[in-house]
Amino acid sequence: KAGVTQTPRYLIKTRGQQVTLSCSPISGHRSVSWYQQTPGQGLQFLFEYFSETQRNKGNFPGRFSGRQFSNSRSEMNVSTLELGDSALYLCASRIPDSPLHFGNGTRLTVT
Amino acid sequence: DAKTTQPNSMESNEEEPVHLPCNHSTISGTDYIHWYRQLPSQGPEYVIHGLTSNVNNRMASLAIAEDRKSSTLILHRATLRDAAVYYCILRRNAGNMLTFGGGTRLMVKP
Predict the structure, then answer these.
(1) What is the pLDDT along chain A (111 residues), one digit of tens a residue?
(2) What sign results for the dihedral spanned by CA atoms A38, B102, B8, B82?
(3) A45, A99, A105, B38: which has the highest count of C-beta atoms within 10 A?
(4) Option in A90, A97, A100 nearest B46 (CB)
């Protein structure tokens, strides 16, 4: 079974631009969540989707948004990029009452 | 949310057992104790979890104190591939919102 796939693996953007990151969960997993990892703040929860509905949201500004499609694939979008948005963005999927399965992330660099 | 406290780093020799401690003195009765690890350039990987009883799986063992205020992840024979950051996390509900702390960076010496 293929794992969680995140694309692209690396991305370089400039301040003010927007970016869309993609996540394909493990087949059969309907729950997808996103995390941001930075050296200073560690791993922080962004949001969680289940069956195309956002169930939980972390403490991030409205520039960070996401969505989930009917095939459970998910995207997250960051608008008006700031230097501080440079981070590793991780996606995880799961089935109910099971551990999270993480992808290897998208490393975003904002210059 | 209840917090966990872990040492910043630990060292081990290859093929020796490793005991990674975690304190969670404010744990509630419904909190599960989860352990994940993150190898370099990879996303976190699930290791083990438990509620009250000790747990074993192919990767590790989890020993939970009787009062549940602390737990220990045990790697029975450390290998170089076990070098990673190990996170101890309390998971209260069925959702995906895990609160990661700083974790313990495990270094394994040959």
Answers:
(1) 679 999 999 999 999 999 999 999 999 999 999 999 998 888 999 999 999 999 989 999 999 999 999 999 999 999 999 999 999 999 999 998 889 999 999 999 999
(2) negative
(3) A105
(4) A100
